[in-house]
Write a structure and sequence with these properties.
There is one protein chain. By secondary structure, the protein is of the alpha/beta class. The protein has two domains: 140 residues, Aspartate Aminotransferase, domain 1; 251 residues, Type I PLP-dependent aspartate aminotransferase-like (Major domain) (Aspartate Aminotransferase, domain 2, 3-Layer(aba) Sandwich). The structure holds D-malate. D-malate binds next to loops.
Length: 404
């Protein structure tokens, strides 16, 4: 008789955003006349930039001609894209990353979930609290997190690093030494950012204790302030302790197109074993490469016209962020994030729990957000709104919230 991976049975409820989608669908079915504004999941609403569309069309035409048709992509990514990424995202910032240290994939969500596979089960992970749920849930699936305690909503074998108003939503070094540290800056969900000096402290710490940092920089394009690092490889010593996850979803609108990459420096080793080699082995065995047309589209993000168009799109979303921040502040809400990030983190009013506020907002303002407690226990009493809506919907949503 077959047996299931019973680690899956330990998972709590369904995936946060699936759960929200179900709730919203039920509300919508019961109230078909309501105009619901969705500022929940961080999904973009602006179309792909013209430079990207042009490149997609060109690549599709290549696929229609036997002379330029491409079959399987190289499993680690086409050279043209890896080199373009290296030059623009790393060399331009003075970071020492080689093209063959960049592994192209179909997105940062998959990579952030899959990367734990190359580590032993008895590694101890440390996560920010609140945290993007994929990091914890995929470690639960692997059997690395121990036992769930329903009263504290924590796993026995996970080190939680609370990110609260008291520490400006930036984690402190953990008391217990972890093996794997997940960091995401600019942060999802709180929208907080840390300076290069603050990130350097983590890099020094990881090198000192022999930990690896899995650094999710999916939101780096939203950084507006000086001295906030765009990549962990701006820090001294990161090549021996860090893996970086990057996405084309948020900076270039690829949520439905799917493209991302992971950077693993060759110096990053456990004893004599190179993590770069392990990830290359994993990628080669389990993955057939992101589609050619999508990688060509990714390349166009870095073209001169692509860069200009992408910048405009990010400015559009950041105008939404400002609208949300200013509107909610003027209505008396305590808000943070939204300056180097498309996420606004707000304190729920009247001591409502995160889910109570979710229901209240959905039912009375017909606005969807994300309950902070869905990201971890320290998110309780908070709520996340995304700046990825249309400007018109963002303005309308804030007007509705102000009028509650
Ligand atoms: C979010 O809303 O947190 C993100 O859109 C989720 C994701 O990127 O997978």
């Amino acid at each position: 008789m077959f047996k299931v991976n019973d680690n899956y049975l330990k998972l709590q409820g369904s995936y946060l955003f699936s759960n929200i989608a179900k709730k919203v669908a039920a509300f919508s079915a019961a109230n078909p006349d309501k105009d619901i504004i969705r500022l929940g999941i961080g999904d973009v609403t602006q179309p792909l930039a013209p430079a990207i569309i042009k490149s997609l069309h060109g690549a599709v035409d290549e696929m229609a001609d036997a002379a330029t048709f491409r079959g399987y992509a190289p499993d680690l990514g086409y050279e043209f894209l890896r080199t373009t990424i290296m030059e623009n995202d790393y060399k331009a910032l003075g970071c020492d990353i080689a093209a063959d240290e960049i592994f192209v994939s179909d997105g940062a969500k998959c990579d952030s979930g899959n990367i734990q596979e190359i580590f032993a089960i008895d590694n101890k992970i440390a996560v920010c609290d609140p945290v993007y749920p994929v990091y914890v849930d995929t470690n639960v699936m692997a059997g690395r997190t121990g036992v769930f305690d329903a009263s504290s909503e924590t796993w026995s074998d996970v080190i939680y690093m609370p990110c609260t108003a008291e520490n400006n939503f930036a984690p402190e070094l953990p008391k217990e030494t972890p093996d794997i540290i997940y960091l995401c800056f600019p942060n999802n969900p709180t929208g907080a950012a840390i300076t290069k000096d603050e990130l350097q402290v983590w890099v020094d710490y990881a090198n000192k204790v022999g930990a690896v940092i899995i650094y999710d920089a999916a939101y780096e394009a939203y950084i507006t302030e000086e001295n906030i690092p765009h990549t962990i490889f701006e820090c001294e010593g990161a090549r021996t302790c860090a893996i970086e996850l990057r996405s084309f979803s948020k900076n270039a609108g690829f949520t439905g197109t799917r493209l991302g990459f992971t950077v693993i420096p060759k110096e990053l080793k456990a004893g004599d074993v190179s993590l770069h080699a392990l990830w290359a082995r994993r990628h080669g065995t389990k993955y057939n490469g992101a589609p050619y047309i999508i990688q060509r589209a990714g390349e166009s993000v870095y073209s001169p016209e692509g860069k200009v168009q992408i910048k405009e799109q990010i400015a559009y979303y950041m105008k939404n962020a400002k609208t949300i921040m200013e509107g909610l502040s003027s209505a008396g809400y305590t808000v943070s994030g939204g300056v180097n990030s498309p996420y606004i983190w707000l304190k729920t009013p009247d001591k409502m729990t995160s889910w109570e506020f979710f229901d209240y907002l959905l039912e009375t303002a017909n606005v969807v957000g994300t309950p902070g407690s869905g990201f971890g226990p320290s998110g309780e009493g908070y709520f996340r709104l995304t700046a990825f809506g249309t400007y018109e919907n963002t303005v309308a949503a804030i007007e509705r919230i102000k009028n509650l």
